[in-house]
What we know:
- The chain is α/β, with parallel strands linked by helices.
- Helix content is 38%, strand content 18%.
- The protein is built from ten helices and twelve strands.
- Strands 3-2-1-4-10-6-11 form a seven-stranded mixed beta sheet, sandwiched between helices.
- Helix 3 (94-105) runs parallel beside helix 4 (124-133).
Amino acid sequence: MTMKMKMKLKNVFMLYFLVSICGLMYALTQLGQPCDCTLHSRQSSDLVHSRDRTISRLQGELKRLQARGNPEGPPKPALPTIYTVTPTYTRLVQKAELTRLSQTLLHVPSLHWVVVEDSPVKTSLVSELLKRSGLPYTHLCTQTPKDFKLQEGDPNWLKPRGVEQRNLALQWLRENRGPSDEGVVYFADDDNTYSLRLFEEMRFTKRVSVWPVGLVGGVRFERPLVERGKVTGFYTAWKPNRPFPMDMAGFAVSLPLLLANPAARFHLSAQRGNLESSLLQTLVSIEELEPRASNCTKVLVWHTRTEKPKMKQEDALILQGLGSDPSVEV
């Protein structure tokens, strides 16, 4: 190794040594001196507090979700099911009526919708509507005997409607429900208007519960008359001497009572206005009726009817070969 190379190595070593000594001396002079760590401490503290707040918020949210899905205390007993029986038949306003009713029933907890078509087969219109309804349902069908069917131009009151359909629903309940099943059966026509309060009024029916019905029988309302919590008669103008002068929308029957009376049914041969009586007479006496809706002083269901649409313009267009597209479902 040449002398020149040795000198370079010696210089590099000396330089490294001097730098190391300077660094060591500076470190020694800092020992015991106050350190300004306030900024770092504050940043660290902020991070810790932010983390604690986030954890606390997430724990609170978890508790709220747990309380919503699994409330504290003993679990609430299951509500009795309301079996809502709706007879229906093909007509221009059928889909509109069923849509309106289904969207009311959607707001009622623990409800099973039994829809029975007056048809030899289940129609696609009703089948698809029920599938999209979001409701637990049973879809049935049976055709009214020809001799008991209303003809074109007949008034609505001439013959009882929905008789065989309601009876088929009763048959389905007897075949698919048993003595241990709690519930109540309500006959809800598709053209009436229902308050949600009505369903909670009927839910815990023991035998037969009753209430007023608005816009029926040619008067503002019909209702049972109540004294000291007992039904003593009925306020009605039309045929007040009927055994049970009530509208179909004005009562509900407990499921166990129906199952215990397998012969109870509606009668096709019932006289005008006596269809409800043909069922109720086999189940209960007037004294056993259970008044609801503030002792039958509140109207929670209305016997409304959709106006039959006038299709004169449609008929005229059909004659011209310009009728609306039949593939568009109304």
